[in-house]
Amino acid sequence: QVQLVESGGGLVKPGGSLRLSCAASGFTFSDYYMSWIRQAPGKGLEWVSYISSSGSTIYYADSVKGRFTISRDNAKNSLYLQMNSLRAEDTAVYYCVAGGPALDYWGQGTLVTVSS
Amino acid sequence: DIQMTQSPSTLSASVGDRVTITCRASQSISSWLAWYQQKPGKAPKLLIYKASSLESGVPSRFSGSGSGTEFTLTISSLQPDDFATYYCQQYNSYLWTFGQGTKVEIK
């Protein structure tokens, strides 16, 4: 069955960096748009970024543009999110999501906490 | 950016009730709207796409309607498993946005 497993979350100081990874299995990864969606504690869902199946099309939410970089490796069935210049307001559970634009499959999420 | 506004924010209902949640877009999004269900501590689950298409495996008591700027998610007969938070998402523009969520609580 479809599995999306995020890793790389943790505690980081403001201004720091983290790289999230997502390992995909159970579907043809190279056929799917992939996205990162985040959810701050007790808050709603926020779309962060998506990347097309080939990687040729990428978009970011204004809140992360210039600080975050999405990428994928179709040979490794993996999705990444490089997060730089992290702020307290980036604290959230980050979900790796397959599909687009309707979001079909979701991972269980990885928590990123930005705090001094 | 296109803003999505859901109402109500919280809804109290009983098992067996018919429940309707509304999602309004700040500009026309045609039928490019999806609905998700999220339970505490879990990832969201896709219920409806393209405003009214039911995702495979989703019970038929869930239905979606609308186009342009106003959309509804209806649960025809609320079941115990349906108490959760529901989100709409627009994908008309390349910047996707979610509504703020509607929590369906037990009355």
Automatic annotation (TrEMBL), chain B:
What GO biological process, any one, is recorded here?
adaptive immune response
Q: Which GO CC annotations does the UniProt entry carry?
A: extracellular region; immunoglobulin complex; plasma membrane
InterPro entries assigned: Ig-like_dom (IPR007110), Ig-like_dom_sf (IPR036179), Ig-like_fold (IPR013783), Ig_sub (IPR003599), Ig_V-set (IPR013106), IgV_Light_Chain (IPR050150)
Where is it mainly found? membrane
Q: Does the keyword Lyase apply?
A: no
The UniProt record lists the keyword Cell membrane: yes
Q: Please provide an example of a Pfam family that matches this protein in its UniProt record.
A: V-set
Q: Where in the cell is it found?
A: Cell membrane; Secreted
Q: Which residues form the Ig-like domain?
A: 2-89
Entry keywords, A to Z: Adaptive immunity, Cell membrane, Immunity, Immunoglobulin, Immunoglobulin domain, Membrane, Secreted
Q: Which SUPFAM superfamilies match?
A: Immunoglobulin
Recorded superkingdom: Eukaryota
Protein's name in the database: IGL c3502_light_IGKV1-5_IGKJ1
**Species of the source:** Homo sapiens
